[in-house]
Design brief:
The protein is α/β, with parallel strands linked by helices. The chain is built from ten helices and five strands. It has a five-stranded parallel sheet with strand order 2-1-3-4-5, with helices on both faces.
C-alpha cells in the first residue's frame, strides 16, 4: 500500500466558439487563473500553436496509470485540443524525479531554450519532501527556477505536491505544500493545490488513494490524472477568454 502511495506522490474561448467540458471531478472550490496571468499563453493560442512544458517528478510520467496516453500531460493535451479547435497543442514532458536543485536548474535551462514554451506547469515538492530537504533551501531553489521561467517569457502554473493518506503518515508533507504556495504568492503566479484536492477526494471517497488491488490502483491513477487535466484545462481556457 505504501509503495503505491509513494508512486502517486513521486510519481474554449467563447468568442471563437471554444468550449470546456463540464466538470466531472468534484472540487472544494474552483481553481481560477486570473485573466492577466497567462499573456504568453493567450498570444500563442492567437497564433494557433501552443507549447506547454510540464515539469515534475515521476508522477509526470504517470507510470501508475500504465500507459502514456493516461498521464496528466497527455490528458491535458487532449482536453485542450478539444477545447481549442484549430490550435496545435505541443506538450513537452520534463520529468526530473529525485534530482537536486542544481540538476533541475541545468535541465530546465536547456529545455526552456530548446522548446520555447508559452506555458510551464510545474509540480514541485515531492522529491524534496521525500528527502526531508531543508525548507529554506527548497524555497530558494523553487524561487530561482520560477525566476528563470518568468525571465524566459513563459507563463507559469505551479502545483503543490500530491497527497496520499499512507504517505502523509510517514512523510511530513504540509511544510512543502506551504512552501510552494508561498513561492507562488511571492512570484504572483497561480498555484493549483493538488495536495488539498487529493485530500478532499480521499476524504470524500471519490478516489481511494491507498487502494491495494492492482486493477483498482490503475483505475484510480487514470482518474486522478484526468481530473488534474480537467481542472487545468478549464482554468487555462477561462483565463485566456
Amino acid at each position: 500500500m505504501r509503495k503505491w502511495a509513494i508512486l502517486l506522490l513521486l510519481a474554449g474561448l467563447h468568442g471563437f466558439g471554444w468550449t470546456v467540458q463540464a466538470a466531472s471531478c468534484p472540487t472544494p472550490e474552483e481553481f481560477v487563473v486570473a485573466a492577466d496571468a497567462l499573456p504568453a499563453t493567450k498570444a500563442a493560442i492567437g497564433r494557433r500553436a501552443l507549447t506547454i512544458l510540464t515539469l515534475g517528478g515521476a508522477a509526470t510520467l504517470g507510470a501508475p496509470a500504465q500507459g502514456t496516453e493516461y498521464t496528466y500531460p497527455s490528458r491535458l493535451k487532449a482536453r485542450l485540443a478539444e477545447a481549442l479547435p484549430g490550435v496545435t497543442i505541443n506538450m513537452v514532458v520534463l520529468a526530473v524525479p529525485r534530482q537536486s536543485g542544481v540538476d533541475l536548474d541545468l535541465k530546465l535551462s536547456a529545455e526552456l531554450a530548446a522548446t520555447n514554451p508559452a506555458l510551464v506547469i510545474w509540480g514541485a515538492g515531492a522529491s524534496a519532501a521525500g528527502r526531508g530537504d531543508d525548507l529554506d533551501t527548497f524555497i530558494g531553489s523553487v524561487t530561482q527556477a520560477v525566476g528563470k521561467i518568468q525571465s524566459s517569457g513563459a507563463d507559469l502554473i505551479l502545483m503543490t505536491l500530491q497527497y496520499a493518506p499512507s504517505v502523509a503518515r510517514v512523510i511530513d508533507l504540509p511544510p512543502y505544500r506551504s512552501a510552494v504556495l508561498q513561492a507562488g504568492e511571492m512570484a504572483s503566479v497561480p498555484v493549483l493545490d493538488r495536495y488539498e484536492l487529493m485530500r478532499f477526494w480521499s476524504d470524500t471517497d471519490f478516489l481511494d488513494l491507498d487502494a491495494t488491488a492492482p486493477e483498482t490502483r490503475v483505475l484510480v491513477a487514470r482518474k486522478l490524472y484526468d481530473c488534474m487535466a480537467e481542472i487545468l484545462s478549464k482554468a487555462i481556457v477561462d483565463a485566456v477568454h
